[in-house]
Amino acid sequence: KVSHVWGSDKGEALNDQIDPAGSGDHEVPRFTWWDHKGSSEWVEYEFAETMKVSGVEVYWFDDRGRGSCRVPASWKVLFRDSGGNWKPVDAKGKFGVEMDKFNAVEFAPVETNGLRLEVKLQDEFSGGILEWRVVGLGEQAM
After folding, report:
1. Pick from 11, 66, 89, 128: CA 20 to 30 A from residue 56's CA?
2. E strands of 40-102, at which residues?
3. What pTM did the predictor assign?
4. Using CA atoms, how far apart are residues 33 and 122, in angstroms rounded to an integer?
5. Nearest residue to 118 via CA among 129, 107, 109
6. What distance in Å separates the CA atoms of residue 77 and residue 86, rounded to the nearest whole number?
7. pLDDT tens for residues 71-128?
8. How far is CA 138 from the centre of its chain?
9. How far apart are CA 92 and CA 108, in angstroms?
10. For residue 20, how many other CB atoms are within 10 A of its CB?
11. Closest CA to 78 of 48, 50, 107
């Protein structure tokens, strides 16, 4: 599920397992919130069953010099608890917004059937994701 998506992607690019050559890679599928700018957006995974997860890796889309998407101003990860409420994870590091790499964050393990990224876009810019991985305990969950 997503708060908004440009085009017909509907989020499939988020986990197509195609690693980009860089943040401005237009040769691989990408997910964007275009034409929303400076807004708060979200994207989430729903799992068929409860999973134990302990981190995420996000490769941000940034097409500076070509378009109006930038890495976000900030972001955070939330998990759905057993009551269906979204709660922030207990992160063990920073939520990175670096270009040309996976921005990884580990957190205290949670058992959940859903994860959400809440993203604050930079003022006057949109944003997007080239790939979002969910990491389990010792294995990639998605």
Report:
1. 66
2. 40-61, 74-80, 86-88
3. 0.91
4. 12
5. 129
6. 10
7. 999 999 999 999 999 999 999 999 999 999 999 999 999 999 999 999 999 999 999 9
8. 20
9. 7
10. 20
11. 107
